Amino acid sequence: MKRFYLMGWSGAFLLAILASPFLVGNPFYTDIVVTIFYYSALCLAWNLVGGYAGQFSLGHTAFFGIGAYTSTLLFLNLGLSPWFGMLVGGFMAALLALVVFTPCFRLKGFYFCLASIALAEVLRIIAVYWRGLTKGGVGLLLPVNPDWRNFLFATKEPYLIFSFVLLVTMIGITWWLERSKLGYYLKAIKEDESAAKAVGVNVVRCKTVIMMISAFFTAIGGSFYAQYMMFIDPEIVFSMHLSIQVALFAIIGGVGTVAGPVIGAILLVPLDAFMKGWLGTLYAGLGFVVYGAILIAVVLVIPNGVVNAAEEWMRKRSVQDREESGEILEAIIPPPAVPIPRSGEILRVTGVNKSFGGLRAIVQMDFSVRPGEIVGLIGPNGAGKTTLFSLISAFLKPDSGSIVFSGQDAASIGSPHGMCALGLARTFQLVRPFMHMTVLDNVTTASLLRASRVADAQARALDVVKFVGLGPMTYKSASSLTLANRKRLELARALATQPSLILLDEVMAGLNPSEINQIIELIRRIAATGVTLVVIEHVMKAVMTLSDRIVVINFGQKIAEGTPSEIVANPQVIEAYLGQEAAHA
Amino acid sequence: MRRSNLWVAVLVAVLCLPLSQPSMAKDALKIGVIYPMSGPLAYTGQECMRGAQIARDMINEAGGVKGQKVEFVVGDEVSPKDAMAEAERLITIEKVPVIAGGYSSSNAFAASDVCEKHKTVFWVTTGVGDPITSRGYKYIFQLNTRASQWGGTTADFLGKVAAPKLGIAPKDFKLALIHEDSLFGTIIGDNCVARAKELGLQVVERITYSHKTVDLSSEIAKLKASAADGIVSIHYVNDGNLFYGQAKQLRLNAKVLVGSVFFGLDQFQEKFGKLVDYVCVVDPPTRVEASKIKEPAASVLTEFRRRFRDNYKSDPGDPGFTAFCGIYVLLKNVLPEAKSFDSDSIQEAALKLDLDELTTPFVFGVQFDKPPSKTAGANLKAFPVIMQWQDEKLLVVYPETLASAPAKLPMPTWDERKK
Amino acid sequence: MVTQIAQLTINGLLLGSIYALNAMGLTLIFGVMEIINFAHGEFLMLAMYAAFFVNIWMGIDPYLSVLLVAPTFFIVGVAFQRLLIQPLMNAQEIAQIFATVGLAMVLQNGALFLLSADYQIVRTDYSLESFDVFGVYLSYTRVFAAAAVILVVACLHLFMKETYLGRAIRATAQDRQAAWLMGVNVKRVYLVTTGLGLACVGISGSVLSPVFAVFPTVGNQFGLIAFVVVVLGGMGNLAGAFFGGLIIGLVEAYSGFFLDPALKTVVYFVVFVLILLVRPTGLFGTTARETA
């Protein structure tokens, strides 16, 4: 209910802003409102990539400029109406995003930032240099011929309406995104890319899609600008200044929210106009000193922006305690998505080698796992156990040898999310929950792999959450969980992808004895549903009780394999753990 | 939290500053004035402002316009976008009926759109870009010579005066051109090349660069490789400074060198001393001797130069000169003739102007092309001149009718000049 | 033709050494603290102004003013670390990037507000002079700048290898936990490193003040190039920054002549992005750190 209340008021507020120029009747004021609207739209577009996917671009002006130049050139040279021209501009920008920016997603944080700045600059220089096409530094001028078919109006009001519509569209898109599968995936990516990959998120594809959407609408903003101002040149539409401002407004307002960028624009655009008008001529530069100071202050004190800080503050005041019942035994988890072979092997590792520089981490590894087994994987620290898991789950590529899972060659799948889709899940040695999401959202992200509709995914996630015993914690933030519960969450996420095989990496590490017993119970129940498990563990009690079979590795090589009792008596195993003397004791 | 409180305090303090602005006199005529007060062109903008202020002061001292004193409401044209916003502000909030100024062609071009939309007269004193008056707009008036003329005159000088003096036939004369890449440089460049081709000169190189660049060594290397007889360099102030300094360091030689803006400023001579000799510059007629024009314009010009030198210890170049003349003509010849102090009356009065050559401080006359011509608002009587530094003084050398001395060519090489 | 190529090569090397000098401080700070300082160009701008004012007010030759400017900037660096970098060490990525972006805005526009936009350049007797070697012209100021780079690189190299503090810095750069456990005062290492980094910027500013004009936005161009050089050479790699700078200088000189001067920045930006994509650790960079 509270949500709708808030939405209603926000909508009314925006409509009031829309109506105000008609009442004030001053063109300068109308101009400010138009600027607020289209800047908000631009900030929301930036926010799609910056706030949701966690890629901070300072090169969005590239898209803005492409939009402006495309629609204008098409109009001036071919007479194509800017109504269509702006769509073409949008597609050109999306194409640019796909071809040029997407490869840059591999780059971390500030590298991506720098690359985006460089790319935008390159476009600006090309726009100046390619005089034949763009008239270079002279710029392009649109004729003063008002005609609605050509998106040229004599008064400001139609532009006002259009920019408002653009804003509403962006708000709608952002709002839809937050609740969609892509939205969950992007949030997960922003939290922890590796964990996201492990639950089946195709990180590159998600980022690419959102970047293309962001580019498309930023370009539309650029086309609008060209039609509104009727004059563009490379300095104006490929301006680093614009890139910074769009990011700045979104950040100060609040990244990763719908309201944040809008609030940011509403607060800062008038401030900008005010400072330029009153202070600009008298105190050149002071305006931006103020901007910069505000940015530093916000980023240090409330890095998530005004809106998020406000929400935090409100949340602290009203503690939500939506309890869910804690029945464990009743809950059923959905079955494995990919059919498990009845017999034969579900996983076969043959002759796998992996080296890191001079270090040989895995040497001629051969082993297999039958469906429904629980296989323990033990060995001293540094033996290569986690590396082996990373190889099996396609986080790493083997130098030689093959890994066949469920009849498919891992090399041909090639990606962690692909393996996950095939039915292979893994947990991490150091737990990686999506900290800022609730338990339910964490698990929903995983179950979205198998259910396209968010509502279905949530329902299944709810079952899984109850199954692992996190019922009472369903709506709590993952950051508030104890270590034991975070381990359960990790398991829940793995289960939600409906795997046929789970790789468990030191699930017991850091738990006290009673917690260990509980987890052992949980693992048993998971195995009872038919899921195959490969378990790395140092807690011997757990390994011995759970495993059907144990594989021992040391220095990257398999040194023994057999039942728990066979392994315990094996002299090589004893030597590996306790040294030579102990083996001969 | 402490830190953000500090910033809030700063913000509040800063917001209180505007309250200390001086208030305007009640009966004054307010006209808008736009020049670059900040940013890379601030130096020239400041000189424009000085010229404009002298014009205003001289008029006010003589009784003002129809008895009323004139006051400026200032706008800052840092960039095209800002110029537009400032014009918008001056028109809709300050409600001025005319905006004068406009140094940078790109900025003036952008602002002119705003003025035409609001039917406010834009009196462009200095900006030379042709597009400013190429759209048949009715409220835009461009006083200064247009960039296309600069290009054409330069080519004329090279082909008709320099080449013969150097004993080179036009078809053998190699011309290299380097210009900054904004509207200013591009238009002059285009026209220079076009006219040069008409005269049969060989254009061997055309290089563009951003006027904000910090290094021109590659460009100069290319110019050297072109082995040109004449080099034309269209630059502003800082890039002009950079160009000449690096030309010296890298020993870029030419038989004749024509530059713009910076080469016509006293600052050039201050920085390079004797090394400025033989350098030519294309500019409005800033240094025509007062004796060559008629009274009362001659006295006005002399008075202007005296005041400028007394106050600022240097002679005005194109920015100061055109700003002064532009404002002076507006306040002396246009506003008094307007029926009332509103945009349409001012526009009417402007269209009626017909001042002959040598009767204005500009040296050239003022008469605007009329609507519905595409180039309505352009000053049909404006023309640029070529000047040359001789014995560290800037003298007009072309056209011959206004020349103070003949051009001295060829320019010695850098090594020769060291002695 | 040979002379032309030689001249281009010299131009490129001289320019490149200037780029290298600018990048030194940046790579040092990044190598140890892994924070990118987007305000690097602005610090350079301030250093150039400092040298300019020292020259105007006290009449000191810019190469001597290094003795004043460098220590001052060392102190500025220490303050910068304490006030802005330290709080960012454990902050979110968004804070790390945009705090220094904000600082860049404050510095750039503060300079515009206080100092005006005029271009200033230090004029000395030799600032316009050049000498020639077999028809190739070298300007004195640029040669001095190149000499300064070599001196700075040599000194830093010795410092890093021979002194305790230098080794402490290198240790912290490789693994701050381990260094801390070994008894290195990591906090002090941070302060010294940033101080050193900005002292390098101070030297750079002094040395460049007779070569380039200074104006409030000069940091943009130089800052961006510094980033390109640092990434090219490998973050934290001093030698890499040196060679990276030379390479960028040469690329700029050659592409300016053989392609088109207007496109020279395009060329090295494209090179920059390609390097980031193909070899993100830089041409000379060490292997990437292990993630948990």
How does this model look, in words?
The complex is a heterotrimer of chains A (about 575), B (about 425) and C (about 290). Chain A has about 575 residues and is of the alpha/beta class. Chain A contains 26 helices and 12 strands. Chain A starts with a helix and ends with a helix. Chain B has helices at about 1-15, 40-60, 80-90, 105-115, 145-165, 185-200, 215-225, 240-250, 265-270, 295-310, 320-335, 345-350, 415, and strands at about 30-35, 70-75, 100, 120-125, 140, 175-180, 200-210, 230-235, 255-260, 280-285, 385-390, 395-400. Residues about 1-10 and about 15-25 of chain B have low confidence and may be disordered. In chain B, about 60% of the residues are buried. Chain C is mainly alpha-helical and about 290 residues long. Chain C has helices at about 1-35, 40-60, 60-90, 95-115, 140-160, 165-175, 175-180, 185-210, 220-235, 240-260, 265-280, and strands at about 130-135, 135-140. Chain C has a two-stranded antiparallel sheet. The interface of A and B includes residues 139, 141 and 235 of A.
Mean residue pLDDT of chain B: 87
Number of helices of chain B: 13
Determine the structural class of chain A based on helices, strands and strand pairing.
alpha/beta
What's the helical proportion of residues of chain B?
40-55%
Offer a quick outline of the entry.
Chain B has 419 residues and is α/β, with parallel strands linked by helices.
Secondary structure blueprint with pairings:
The complex is a heterotrimer of chains A (585), B (419) and C (292).
Chain A: H1 2-24, H2 27-52, H3 61-78, H4 82-101, H5 109-129, H6 131-134, E1 140-141, H7 157-178, H8 181-191, H9 193-198, H10 203-229, E2 231-232, H11 234-237, H12 240-253, H13 259-280, H14 286-301, H15 305-317, E3 347-356, E4 359-369, E5 374-378, H16 385-392, E6 400-405, E7 408-409, H17 410-413, H18 416-422, E8 424-426, H19 439-447, H20 454-467, H21 483-496, E9 501-505, H22 513-528, E10 532-536, H23 540-546, E11 549-554, E12 557-562, H24 564-569, H25 571-578, H26 580-583
Parallel strand pairs in A: 5-10, 5-11, 8-9, 9-10
Antiparallel strand pairs in A: 1-2, 3-4, 3-6, 6-7, 11-12
Helix pairs in contact in A: 1-2, 2-7, 2-10, 2-12, 2-13, 3-4, 3-5, 3-10, 4-10, 7-10, 8-19, 12-13, 12-15, 13-15, 19-20, 19-21, 20-21
Chain B: H1 2-16, E1 29-35, H2 42-61, E2 70-76, H3 80-92, E3 98-101, H4 105-117, E4 121-124, E5 140-142, H5 147-166, E6 174-180, H6 183-198, E7 202-209, H7 217-226, E8 230-234, H8 238-249, E9 256-259, H9 266-272, E10 280-283, H10 297-312, H11 318-334, H12 343-352, E11 385-390, E12 393-398, H13 414-417
Parallel strand pairs in B: 1-2, 1-3, 3-4, 4-5, 6-7, 6-8, 8-9, 9-10
Antiparallel strand pairs in B: 10-11, 11-12
Chain C: H1 2-33, H2 40-58, H3 62-88, H4 93-115, E1 130-133, E2 136-139, H5 140-162, H6 164-174, H7 176-181, H8 186-208, H9 218-233, H10 238-258, H11 264-278
Antiparallel strand pairs in C: 1-2
